[in-house]
């Protein structure tokens, strides 16, 4: 039967195996891979078995007593085509659909005939149904169902799985036409699938193919490339080619110019997509940069920026050039605020501590800041004991309140740092000071059950 096998079927199968086998090996050798394979294969198989279970429990099975004439056709064709195991054939109601398909159910071959297709048999369509049966038996003879399971991962490659499926359809059409021995019936059957039982006998097949062959644009081309079946006119034309009755004026081959056009469109699409992605990435980077350094639009000085970036050399250079060390941005923050924590995403570092010390040594004020950005609170929440001591020594207000009314002592309780609590108490912090919720440092310590801090406060 080699001459009936489409020349691209084996090529596409080999490519699909090249993609699929390494995938199976990698995932079988890893624990998570077994789970992935389960979801990719076992779950769809389970859904398939449920569907087949419905058909087997509701459909009518062909037997010597049930539609014996069609059953005999199946036996005769199975013998003629040397199908090793005669499949179970079921007829099921189809809501007007004209179709049939071959499948497997727990190792047993099956063919499902939709009732509309079977009805053709009762209206002088014996040859047409015989072609359909031979086509589905050809799928079983070629083991297409089992092969489709083996190459499942390869179907993720765009267009490749569909191309293999279309090649298989061409193969089965040719085998069915050969074993049925009626080319005209084969062509009429495919026409039947296009237009229905009431009209297919009246279709001028030559004009039908000619009309379809002239439909050439990218969307017509793409509709087929995304389909698992070739267009019906192309299937008829393939049979004409296979059995030597081709009309020279009908040509479905894609022209070189059209192929170049498709390639050009694909390249243009890729370039536009790449440009769009590149532009989006740059836009996101710009937005992030503007969010991170939106301080540039808030009256920020070069000294503030250098302090927030941890650039000690630049800070020293700007101080030497007599840049105003206590200049404020629109929020009222000075360079010392930027150095202690404002706009700093990483943990406080030795370099930042050095910058803070440099600013303080050169007269930086600790009492110019917003309610949200208070240097001593930054240091307390980062548990920077030495920096808290330094800030107190340089005159930081230990009773300063943030927008919640929390003073440094309350912040130290929240930070659960008994050492800083003791430093603040020794510096004169008022343990009776309340925040906007009326809570003292002791109230918060008791709520947090911080025994050591409670002892200090009491």
From TrEMBL:
GO molecular function: metal ion binding; metalloendopeptidase activity
Domain of life: Bacteria
Biological processes annotated in GO: proteolysis
ANK repeats: 298-330, 371-403, 404-436
Keywords, comma-separated and alphabetical: ANK repeat, Hydrolase, Membrane, Metal-binding, Metalloprotease, Protease, Repeat, Transmembrane, Transmembrane helix, Zinc
InterPro entries: Ankyrin_rpt (IPR002110), Ankyrin_rpt-contain_sf (IPR036770), Peptidase_M48 (IPR001915)
Cofactors named for this entry: Zn(2+)
Domain Peptidase M48: 64-151, 159-241
Membrane spanning residue stretches: 12-29, 35-55, 260-281
PANTHER family noted in UniProt: ANKYRIN REPEAT DOMAIN-CONTAINING PROTEIN 39-RELATED
UniProt name for this protein: M48 family metalloprotease
Species the sequence originates in: Metabacillus arenae
Source organism phylogeny: Bacteria, Bacillati, Bacillota, Bacilli, Bacillales
């Amino acid at each position: 039967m080699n001459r009936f096998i489409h020349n691209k079927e084996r090529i596409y199968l080999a490519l699909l195996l090249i993609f699929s086998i390494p995938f199976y090996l990698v995932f079988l050798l890893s624990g998570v891979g077994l789970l992935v394979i389960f979801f990719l294969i076992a779950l769809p198989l389970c859904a398939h078995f449920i569907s087949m279970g419905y058909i087997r429990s509701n459909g009518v099975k062909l037997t010597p007593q049930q539609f014996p004439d069609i059953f005999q056709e199946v036996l005769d064709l199975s013998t003629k085509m040397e199908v090793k195991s005669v499949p179970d054939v079921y007829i099921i109601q189809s809501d007007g659909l004209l179709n049939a398909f071959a499948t497997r159910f727990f190792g047993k071959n099956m063919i499902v005939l939709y009732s509309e297709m079977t009805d053709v048999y009762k209206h002088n369509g014996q040859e047409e149904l015989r072609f359909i049966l031979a086509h589905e038996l050809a799928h079983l003879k070629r083991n297409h169902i089992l092969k489709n399971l083996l190459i499942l991962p390869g179907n993720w490659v765009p267009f490749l799985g569909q191309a293999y499926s279309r090649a298989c359809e061409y193969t089965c059409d040719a085998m069915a036409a050969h074993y049925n021995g009626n080319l005209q019936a084969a062509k009429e059957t495919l026409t039947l699938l296009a237009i229905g039982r009431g009209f297919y006998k009246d279709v001028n097949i030559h004009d039908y193919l000619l009309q379809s062959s002239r439909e050439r644009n990218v969307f017509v081309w793409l509709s087929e490339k995304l389909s698992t079946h070739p267009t019906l006119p192309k299937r008829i034309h393939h049979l004409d080619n296979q059995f030597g009755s081709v009309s020279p004026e009908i040509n479905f081959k894609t022209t070189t110019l059209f192929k170049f056009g498709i390639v050009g469109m694909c390249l243009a699409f890729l370039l536009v997509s790449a440009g769009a992605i590149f532009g989006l990435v740059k836009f996101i980077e710009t937005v992030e940069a503007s969010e991170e350094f939106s301080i540039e639009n808030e009256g920020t000085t070069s000294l503030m920026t250098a302090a927030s970036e941890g650039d000690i050399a630049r800070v020293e250079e700007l101080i030497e050039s007599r840049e105003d060390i206590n200049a404020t941005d629109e929020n009222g923050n000075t360079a010392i605020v930027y150095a202690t924590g404002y706009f700093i995403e990483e943990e406080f570092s030795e370099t930042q501590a050095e910058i803070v010390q440099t600013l303080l040594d050169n007269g930086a004020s600790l009492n110019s800041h917003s309610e949200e950005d208070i240097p001593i609170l930054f240091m307390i929440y980062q548990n920077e004991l030495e920096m808290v001591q330094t800030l107190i020594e340089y005159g930081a207000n230990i009773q300063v309140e943030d927008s919640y009314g929390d003073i440094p002592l309350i912040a130290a309780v929240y930070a659960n740092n008994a050492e800083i609590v003791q430093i603040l108490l020794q510096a004169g912090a008022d343990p009776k000071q309340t925040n906007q919720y009326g809570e003292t440092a002791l109230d918060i310590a008791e709520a947090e059950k911080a025994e050591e801090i409670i002892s200090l406060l009491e």
